Amino acid sequence: MTTTVKPPTAPPTAIRPKVVARTGLYAVLAANVVAVAVFFAQAGFAASNALVVLGRLFGLYGALLMAFQLLLVARLPWLDRRIGMDRLTSWHRWTGFGILWTLLAHAVFIAFGYAEGTDVGPIGTIVDLAETTEGVLRAVVALGIIIVVGAVSGRWARRRLAYETWHFIHFYTYVAVVLAITHQVAVGTTFTSSSVARTYWYGVWTVALGAVVLGRAVLPLWRNLRHQFRVEAVVPESDNVVSIYITGRDLDKLPARAGQFFLWRFLTKDRWWQANPFSLSAAPDGRTLRLTAKAAGAGSAALRHVKPGTRVFAEGPYGAFTALHRTRPESVLIAGGVGVTPIRALLEELHGHAVVIYRVATDRDAVLYDELRELAHAKGAELHLVTGPVQPDRLAPAELLRMVPDIADRDVFLCGPPPMMSAVLANLRELDVPKAQTHFERFSLAG
């Protein structure tokens, strides 16, 4: 169905918050890379040979990457709103592999460097250092933890592990961080040679660890104590889709926007330990929050049995899939399946003419379609329901151009199953839609 009304005018937005945040992160990392090099040079090269010098430098940069990695997963609202948790998590993953290889290089260069001129070999040298030098044993344990975490974070292992198992193993990274810090304090020379260098190094780790504590613990606890979230109603939308309305105190003070998601914990005896990421399926109105979930697993299937009045622990809001990143006055919203939930919320908040394209297999799969149709009519938006099997591609470039002739001059917001999103993104590139106008978020937090 298509409803067309003369669109209201809306000024284009020139703000590029993502670029500002990304540039800021790069600048911070570059500045610290330079600072480490300067302090390393000032401390002198008193090591026995070049291998040991290189080993120490790799160790310093490995530790710096560990601090940067903590910043990426601290879930700081300013960064998350501008870059998005999915991209920050992806950067965190690749930074983790950088840490693994950097610290392996540190261990190899140190072992071969100290073994030079001896008859015990590099492995024997590491054993001797662990037995005789304070802090080295802690470094060996930390490296072992990082190797294990790196192994289970590879694609092959990641696909075969339950999320809870992977997360439990990954949690030991914090143990490795503490061991690495104490190792550097015990045997390091770069940041013990001057009070300025020492103050700098403590400052780096204070900021990194403080950001994690603030973003992962203090802020969620404070928000839940303030807002006291509870289930107000549970409404079945279809045989396998349910909407849950959440109420609480002072929700008008909660900085949530359409398109964002929360990590929801429903505090019942069988669900309190399980957190699931669900997007808001309606724009926040200051009185309630609504999530809509499809029964894709045991956790989401059990949501229809949650009772009104159940306490909820919500972490968030998270995500950069919001109108904050608009660059054009008009937009295209493309949804697939239950990915319509943030799209429906965005349509409620967006100003300017919008075209909504909803891709499902059959009419029965069109969750919230009646709401979407009424909202599109009220907003003066065009709504296209596209049904049918996966092949042929009903969102091919020619089809998209037929529904939205000026698609290259609009912002495109996309949410749906990963295969559909990959195909649509390829089609948008073929249509020369600028990357800056393409907005999407891959909700892969729960594996």
UniProtKB/TrEMBL annotation:
The chain crosses the membrane at residues 25-47, 53-73, 94-115, 135-157, 169-187, 199-219. Its cofactor is FAD. It holds the Pfam family Ferric_reduct. Keywords: 2Fe-2S, FAD, Flavoprotein, Iron, Iron-sulfur, Membrane, Metal-binding, Oxidoreductase, Transmembrane, Transmembrane helix. InterPro entries: FAD-bd_FR_type, Fe3_Rdtase_TM_dom, FNR_nucleotide-bd, MRET, OxRdtase_FAD/NAD-bd, Riboflavin_synthase-like_b-brl. Residues 224-324 form the FAD-binding FR-type domain. PROSITE patterns: FAD_FR (PS51384). It is found in: Membrane. It is a multi-pass membrane protein. The keyword Metal-binding applies. Its main location: membrane. This is Ferredoxin reductase family protein. It comes from Streptomyces justiciae.
